[in-house]
Structures are given as structure tokens and as C-alpha cells.
Amino acid sequence: MILEWKKLARTGFVPGLLCAALLAAAFPAVNMAVRSDVYTALDGSPLAILLDANWQLMAMLNLFASVLGACILYHIEYAGGAMQKMDTLPLRPGTLFLRKFAVLAIVGAASILLETASLWGCCLYWFGGRPVPAALLLRTAGMFLPQLLPTQLLLLALSSLCRNLWVSLGIGVILIFMATILPLRGPVLSLLPFAAPFETGLASLSSGELLRSLCLLGAQLIVFAAAGLACQKIRRCM
Amino acid sequence: MTISKMNHPKANIIETHELTKVYGNFTAVSHLNLHIRKGSVYGFLGPNGAGKSTTMKMFLGLTRPTEGYFFIDGKTYPADRMEILRNTGSFIESPAYYGNLTGEENLDIIRRILGLPRSAVDDALEIVGLTQFRRRQARKYSLGMKQRLGLAEALLGRPPLLILDEPTNGLDPVGIHEIRTLIKSLPRQYDCTVLVSSHLLSEVELMADDIGILNHGRLLFEGTLAGLRDLARRSGYPTDNLEETFLAMIDEDNQKGRLNR
Alpha-carbon distance A108 to A124, whole Å? Predict the structure, then answer.
């Protein structure tokens, strides 16, 4: 995987995605600073209040960062024809894909960690009298990553098939907007790629429902990973 | 088709048997039987679209043969694909590089995949004369420098087989001469075999030990340059220079093709 990081030098991948994560992390703090009276007056868990007020935009930024990341990861392979060179090296076609997914997943995890830290900071600063259980905070953060991973995998499979960066970027952006426009509600539809990262209620589900949701997300991961690996074989012989 | 008897049929590093590649209703390579001697420079010659690159891509597993099969150092595709790729350096069609990385970083990526020592990068840069430009980003290289980088990538680790598809494209006359001299010296210096394609016989005859002439996917001739001269004499092709022999051979094949259609 070190190789994949090395390939990203001078692409703007790390600074770009870091900026998106910082922007997403800064949003709840700015929102609270401007409208703290409104939110502190609300009843209920501070974490739920903050998520309701900020997560839609934070998730949107995470998705945009994932689209951009997936596009850059494969653009560097196609721009100078390096992909063909990779195909002539003793490297399994799927290995490259899985390594790139690991890079994207790590960046996604780091972004979510940063954003959770920001939410926690907001809870402490503005809702000091209403403590947030650390277990709930960790469970919430822990659920956001599996909610994001299937979308990242799908985006990466899409990018691996598009030689032109603008095609994969365009499709990714359209899919994000479709997920926000279409009424994807219910236990299954809300966990589909592009819709799942916006969900905030998974951490408060009962154990059985949580397990079912995790199984559904896990199944998506397996299906998209298999589809992504199959795409690599097809692409190689095209 | 004329196949002259090769000197060491048992020492062939590449052998193809009725190798065929069909795209839809277009036959890119048709029933090709190549014999490439170990330790030789084999010039693969043919006009544009003759099927040279397709054949080379099949050797590297970039495209699947429709029919037939081939051996590379006794190994077959797809069963031994990884082993074939580990021992083959290649340069197909155009230089391949990460534009955002320097020449040195590009080679280092490949070095790590091949599991070679760090010195392999310096060695490859030295061979192609890119040492002084090692820290320049590949996208800022001139076409000739990109071509050299592509060659350095192929030469990395000094593999026993090199597959080079028109490696002198885009080079200036001095660069062409240097690369030609380098290719000619490789089997002696590094104990390797080179399969090099070109559409110029004048270029190939200066570096190849054996040649194969391909037109419309069919092998018209395989053998030594002396064998080609002999064939030209017997078949009534111009013998003043081999370029004319080659052109006459291709022209006759094209006319036959038109009559058959």
C-alpha cells in the first residue's frame, strides 16, 4: 500500500482531502458559534442535536472528497499510460484496486475521526452540562465508516473503468445529488450507496437492527468488491 | 509464407503456434508461428496495423489469443502469466509513466513491485542516459526523454527477455543511434533476448539477428537477413537494398489480398 501513497505525490490528493475533512469538521463549530442559542435551547442528546443540524452537509463533503479521491487514484494511472505498464508487471489486476480502496478507506476513516472529534468538542463546549457518553460517541463514529465504505468501493470501481477523469467525476457528482433528491427512506433503501453516508440514526438502533444494518452494508461491500475485481479483469483485456 | 530453418530450434525463448487474434470480424493476427532464438535480437517488422503490437500484447497477457498458443521460455499463458511477466521487460506502443512523479520515482515504483535492489534504478537510468534528469517530473520530459524512461522501465532488473514496440519513435537521430546500439549490445552484455518491432527495415537490419515480416496479421517471412536476401533473389524482388525487398514483399501480399477479396 506504501506504493499507492508514493504514487500520489504532487497530485493534491492528501491536501485536497484534508481540506475537505477540515471543512467538514469546522462546520459544526461554526454553526454552533453562530446559532448556539437555537441549538442549546433544544431538548435531547447534544450529539443527536449536532448531528441533525450538521451531518447532512458533513456527509456531503465526505462524499465529494470520496468522489474526488477515487477519480485522482485512477487518473494518475491513465494520464501517462502507467496503467498499461502496471498490467505488464507481475501484479494481480485486483491487487492494485484493493490497495487503492485501502488508501481511500484510510482517508475516509481519518476524516470521520476528525469530524467526530469536532462534534465531541462542540458537545463539551456548548453542552457542558449535558455530557455525551463516550460509548455513544464512539459507536456513532464507528458506524459512519461502514456506511461510507460501500460508496467508496463503488466510486473506485467506476473510476477504474473511466479513462477520462471528467466522466467518473461527473457520474459521481450526479449520483450524490440523486441520493439527496430521491426519497431513499426505510431500513434497506436508506443504506444503499450514496444514501447510507447521510444516515445518522444507526448508532441508536437496537442490537438486532444494528446487526442487520451491518450485514446489509457488509453484503454491499462484498458485492461491490467482487464487481470491482471483475471490472479489473475485463479492463485489462479490453 | 517462407520459414527458413532456424539454427537452434530447441533454444527458442519464444515460440508461437497458430497464434490468432480476431476483433469482431477483423483478424489482427492470423495463424502466426514465430520462433525467437534465445540470446538474439529479433526484428519484428511490418507496416502499421500489421499486427505487431497485438502479438506483443498477447505475449504480455494484455489481450487474449482467440486461437493458438505460445511458449515463453517454456512457460505458457495464462497458466504462467506472473512468471512470464516477472522475467520480461516491456515497452508497448508509447512510454508509460506517472507524470506527477520524477523519472527516478517512476522507476522506484516498478523496482518495488519487482522486488529489486535500489541499485537497479541507478543502473537503468545510467543505461538510458537519464541520470542527470532523474529528479525532473516525467510530465516535463521531452518526448525523447519519455521514450528513454520507458526503455529504462523495461530494462529495470535486466530481465532475460525484452519486448520493445517501436522503441525509437520520437527520438532524434542521435537518440535513435544510441538506442539502436544499446539494443544491439544487450544480448551480449546482459545475456538477454530482445524482440523489437519496427516498420522500418533499414532500422531493423542494423540491429537484428533474425527478422519476422508481418502483413495483415500473417507472417510473410522469418529468418536471417541473409535468408531474406536469398529469398528476394529467388522470388524476383528487388535486391539493391532490403527496404525495397520489404516494400515489394508487402506490396505483392497486399495485391494478393485484394484479388482474394
Answer: 24
Contact residues, chain B, for A7 at CB < 8 Å: 98, 100-101, 109
Comparing CB atoms, the residue among B82, B94, B108 nearest residue A81 is: B94
Q: Which residue among A11, A80, A83 places its CB closest to the CB of B138? A: A80
Q: How confident is the model at residue B200 (pLDDT cuts 50, 70, 90)?
A: confident
Buried b (16+ CB within 10 A) or exposed e, B138-172: beebeebbbbbbbbbbbbbbbbbbbbbbbbbbbbe
Is residue B163 within 8 A of residue B195, CB to CB? The reply is: yes
Backbone angles phi, psi at A194, to 5 degrees: 75, -25
Domain ranges of chain B: 2-87+161-260, 93-159
Q: Does domain B2-87+161-260 have CATH number 3.40.720.10?
A: no
pLDDT single digits (tens) B157-170: 899 999 999 988 87
A2 contacts in chain B (CB < 8 Å): 112
**Residues A36-95: tens digit of each pLDDT:** 889 988 888 899 999 999 999 999 999 999 999 999 999 999 999 899 999 999 988 789
User: Closest to B109 (Cβ–Cβ): which among A6, A87, A88?
Assistant: A6
**How high is the ipTM of this complex?**
0.86
